[in-house]
Design a protein that fits this description.
The complex is a heterodimer of chains A (777) and B (139). Chain A has 32 helices and two strands. With 777 residues, chain A is an all-alpha fold. In chain B, strands 1-2 form a two-stranded antiparallel sheet. The chains are: A mainly alpha (777), B mainly alpha (139).
């Protein structure tokens, strides 16, 4: 079974690698061919359902960085199975859909690479067996979704939306990493199984609120919870297959998955209940309210997704067995109808070129199959029997009403019921607008050319609609196979799940009636309602998205300002700053510890050395007195050669040789550059020269003192001896400088030559690619 | 520079400097020398060529672009570390073997030699990239 687990996670990445060649060889069938990869994942994940001899959970752990105790570890239990089946199953439909949606687009290959990489990353998130593996895949989903949202990179708004999604989810991801590390420190392990065993200790720990807050931040940004909900509708800049995929079954569910995964470890505390329920209910209401303002199909669906995610988080917050059951059920309900409706919205856009539902109509006759798919998924979204959406909504309402009736804080739970109803009002409205409005009524004249799309475009919605219907009629297989085991994983104990279509006349059914009637009313009165809401829209200027814009602006302003101050383009200022820092920081250490400056015991007068030092000093003085640059450079060369002689004198022939050649080449380079500079016309003023002299004097004195102190430092152990003894037997060389460079510390050398290469390329770019040159050489 | 004396001297000195670079490179492991300084000396040789006969001439005699040398050197150095991994030691661990050639007799050959060759190429490429580009800028 561990092999299956590897197949499940590797096959999307394999598809990503194969995408470009497959699209090149078979551009028309590429979507169908590549859909085999998620299909393989789906099939493999079904194995534990069909063969009882493969029980869950399955674990797989490969050493990754053993010295740090970090493993690449995967885990398949009922919870991850449910999520992974949704991801791979809807992934199959999306891959087929994308092949047709971007048919003939030269970027199809690139698009599929990103899509499958995203799919693999998402499967990695839900199949990971420890916190760090989860984090790696989590970040990979952020990066791949950045590429997908910004796919139309010639559009500025697509780039801005992609950046926004990356910054919001990436920022949350960093907070989450901090939370993970704290959690790992508390529990002593990153593996979920160990964390589960330590859940009591974790919840009792003083750092628990910090851990919880950090992880919550990661989950809320990813799952677009209020106040981070704004990136999700903006992410609609992506091509529709991405919206359908990322915003129905996957990326946004990653946060929900994380909370579900953490529920048995961190859940069941006052903090968890209060925070999650409040955030979730707020998000559900805000998403529903914002959806009412929309008539463009994709943003409308995106806002209802925000609201649905709020419902899921609220259920996780409640944490009762009934609520967890409702959450798992609603997860499936939502994935089915939302992916289907997004695909419908994309098909309508693809075939008619119209994104606004209000400008469409009468398409039922020309696009019957799309209409059936749209109708079924919309009915499920509106929560009408006999579809799965009806059961999902009933269970949600029942859960909330039961808590209202049984718990002490009845007022709070009444608010929760109201929030659930409000979110579902938005759903009914959106379902009517996307599933009914484009297909019925009088067709606008300009839509006469509209026709049914190819099978790849209507297959997805139709299949998902049929699935919603079938699961609605026969809910118990789904409940027994996936929902009950997944809820049991979250609860840590078996959860009884029995789903029936007809619950009898109960409060939940009455609420459903109210919701339906209310949603219909809103739909009919949508035009005056929108005019009223447009007034409220002015409040957006104080909303979280405005805050994001402000924060981004502030960041850019800070970057610009500090760059202007620090990187002002004057080389002399850079030098002064660098010298000042070098002198002040270590120099203050010398001041506070003058005892390091004692005379060394073995020092004696060395005539040859003295002459050399005097020559070097004379060279240094001469540099400042020269009137041409060339002469100054020649004097610098004198200093360099003097220093290499010092190396010769004190037994470092390697250094001397290198220093000498470098010195020559430096002079050559100097001459080549100086040649291009204008001659001295403006000599610095007396005051500036005095300042420079003072700086130079201080720096020189400091360096002299530093060298003097360094001579007397006694090292505890002599590393040189190690090299002297080992260079011949271990590195097969007698010259220790060279054995250090190419053997003992070869990695350092590798880093150095890499830096050298990068610097050279940078210099080449500066020299060759100057904006003032029009030939672009 | 159109000085006949300089051009003649450069013509004689350049091959000697290149040979010296090879000598420095090969003796590197047991005596002062090695890829870094050998690269610098070889660069000086080409530099002389460039001053005497022009940058285009130096590029011709180099045969490949300096950027190519840099990239190739980095790749050689990177790959020289892989044999260590194959023998289940850490990356860049030096591996040695004895090679017997008919004329030269037997001598030891190891992965650090390839690493050093990579260093040599990078240093030569970087130096020449700077000098040749700046030299061409003059015109």
């Amino acid at each position: 079974m561990t092999l299956y687990l590897l197949i499940a996670i590797v096959s999307p990445f394999l598809a990503a690698a194969m995408s470009v060649p497959v699209v090149r060889l078979a551009p028309r069938a590429s979507g169908w061919i590549l859909a085999l990869a998620p299909l393989a994942t789906f099939g493999v994940l079904c194995v534990p359902l069909l063969l009882p001899e493969h029980p869950l959970p399955v674990h797989l752990s490969l050493p990754w960085i053993p010295s740090l105790g970090i493993h690449f570890s995967l885990q398949l239990d009922a919870l991850s199975q449910s999520f992974a089946l949704l991801i791979s199953g809807i992934g199959v439909l999306i891959a087929i859909y994308a092949g047709a949606y971007l048919k003939g687009d030269p970027r199809l290959g690139r698009f599929l690479v990103c899509l499958f990489a995203f799919m693999g990353a998402m499967l990695g998130v839900v199949l990971s067996g420890d916190l760090l593996t989860l984090f790696i895949f989590w970040e990979l989903t952020s990066i791949t979704s950045y590429l997908l949202i910004g796919f139309d990179h010639h559009k500025p708004e697509a780039r801005a939306s992609a950046l926004q999604a990356l910054l919001v989810t990436g920022g949350g991801g960093l907070a989450m990493l901090a939370g993970f590390i704290l959690l790992g420190e508390i529990a002593g392990s990153y593996a979920f199984t160990d964390l589960l065993a330590a859940s009591g200790a974790i919840q009792a720990h003083t750092l628990y609120p910090v851990v919880f807050a950090l992880i919550l931040l990661g989950a809320c940004t990813k799952s677009a919870q209020f106040p981070f909900h704004f990136w999700l509708p903006n992410a609609m800049a992506a091509p529709t297959p991405v919206s359908a995929y990322l915003h129905s079954s996957t990326m946004v569910k990653a946060g929900v998955f994380l909370l579900a995964r953490m529920h048995p470890m961190l859940g069941d505390t006052q903090l968890w209940h209060a925070a999650l329920t409040t955030i979730g209910a707020t998000t559900a209401v805000v998403g529903g309210y914002l959806a009412l303002r929309q008539s463009i199909m994709k943003p409308l669906l995106a806002y209802t997704t925000v609201s649905a995610l709020g419902l899921l988080v609220a259920c996780l917050g409640l944490g009762t067995p009934a609520a967890l059951k409702a959450m798992m059920l609603f997860l499936f309900v939502h994935a089915f109808y939302k992916a289907g409706l997004f695909m419908v919205a994309g098909t309508l856009d693809h075939e008619t070129g119209e994104k606004n539902a209000e400008k469409l109509g009468g398409l039922a006759r020309v696009m019957p199959l799309t209409m059936i798919g749209a109708g079924l998924t919309a009915l499920s979204m509106a929560g009408l029997p006999p579809l799965l959406g009806f059961i999902g909504k009933e269970v949600l309402y029942e859960t909330a009403i039961d808590l209202w009736e049984s718990q002490a804080q009845a007022g709070l739970y009444a608010l929760l019921v109201a929030a659930f109803v409000a979110a579902n009002l938005g759903n009914v409205f959106a379902a009517l607008l996307v599933g009914w409005r484009p297909f019925w009524g009088r067709p606008p004249a300009l839509l006469s050319h509209a026709h049914e799309g190819p099978p790849a475009l209507w297959l997805g919605p139709l299949l998902l609609g049929a699935l919603s219907l079938a699961c609605g009629l026969y809910a118990n297989p789904l409940a027994d196979a996936l929902i009950a085991p997944a809820a049991a994983v979250m609860q840590g104990a078996p959860v009884p799940v029995k789903l029936v279509l007809w619950h009898g006349l109960n409060p939940a059914l009455y609420l459903s009636g109210v919701t339906l009637a209310g949603g219909l009313l809103i739909f009919l009165a949508r035009n005056p309602l929108r005019r009223g809401l447009a007034l409220l829209a002015r409040a957006d200027a104080a909303g979280p998205e405005a805050a994001y814009g402000g924060a981004l602006g502030l960041l850019q302003w800070t970057a610009r300002t500090q760059t202007r101050i620090l990187q002002n383009g004057y080389l002399r200022v850079y030098l002064l700053v660098i010298i000042a820092f070098v002198v002040v920081l270590p120099g203050s250490a010398l001041l506070f510890r003058p005892e390091v400056l004692r005379p060394s015991p073995g020092s004696s007068f060395d005539p040859f050395g003295t002459v050399l030092v005097l020559t070097i000093m004379a060279g240094a003085v001469a540099v400042t007195l020269m009137h041409t640059r060339l002469a100054a450079v020649a004097c610098l060369g004198l200093i360099g050669c003097g220093i290499s002689l010092v190396y010769v004198l004190y037994g470092a022939p390697d250094l001397a040789m290198t220093q000498f050649v470098i010195e020559i080449l430096t002079v050559v380079l100097f001459i080549l550059v100086l040649h291009r500079l204008p001659s001295f016309t403006h000599v610095s003023s007396r005051a500036v020269r005095l300042r420079d002299a003072i700086f130079a004097g201080i720096a020189g004195t400091f360096m002299a003192l530093l060298v003097y102190a360094a001579v007397n430092v006694e090292f505890g152990s002599h590393i040189s001896w190690y090299y002297l003894e080992n260079s011949q037997p271990k590195a097969h060389g007698r010259d220790i400088v060279n054995t250090i460079l190419v053997d003992f510390r070869a990695l350092d050398t590798l880093g150095e030559i890499t830096v050298l290469a990068v610097a050279a390329l940078g210099a080449l770019a500066l020299l060759r690619l100057r904006p003032d040159r029009e030939d672009g050489q | 520079m159109n000085s006949v004396m300089f051009q003649t001297a450069a013509g004689i000195l350049k091959p000697i400097m290149l040979l010296f670079a090879v000598f420095l490179f090969l003796r590197g492991h047991n005596a002062p020398g090695g890829g870094f300084v050998a690269g610098l000396v070889a660069a000086s040789g080409f530099c002389l060529d460039a001053f005497a006969y022009g940058a285009a001439n130096a590029r011709r005699s180099l045969g490949v672009a300096p950027q190519f040398l840099i990239a190739a050197g980095l790749i050689v150095a990177l790959f020289s570390g892989i044999p260590g991994l194959i023998y289940e030691q850490s990356y860049l661990t030096g591996l040695w073997g004895v090679v017997t050639l008919p004329v030269f007799g037997e001598f030891k050959l190891g992965t650090p030699l390839f690493f050093d060759a990579g260093v040599f190429m990078v240093v030569l490429g970087v130096t020449l990239l700077f000098i040749l580009t700046l030299l061409e800028e003059r015109h």
